[in-house]
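Question (not urgent): is this output format expected?
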Amino acid sequence: MRIMGVAMHQGRRPALMLAAGVISGSFFWGSMAATGVSAILTQYAQALGILKLLGGAYLLFLAVKAGRSALTTDKRHEMQTAAARQITGFSLYKRGLLMHLTNPKALLGWIATMTLGLGPQASPAKVAVILAGCAVLSVTIFCSYAVIFSTAPMIACISSSKTMD
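Got this back:
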């Protein structure tokens, strides 16, 4: 959702920078899951419980943030959007990376993917193929969001929804 919002309000290049950060975070979690984080988490059940609690707290944080955003006046939202346009590409990359690294759903998703895709005796080649496939999917999906939602028809949808209010 964040990539889509940046694409519609700030354009394609900033959205691609944010997407690059998300992709890097995704590849990090994929690499960690492939190299044994899931084995550590199964060994230490408390770690998984803590991760679930952190994930729940993160979802509550997102809910509060979404609620605040919904209550924000249009004028204040426009000021925030204008200020966001001044953010540099590297800052957007860092924001995307940190957003994905602090998202417990990403780690749990990768653990599930690696658990399903890899058996206990998986070869390094099989790990590499699964990571490469997931990397291709990440690049395709997240960059597509940046490109599609920065097109004129999508931006026009946002403009027309503002005029309806």
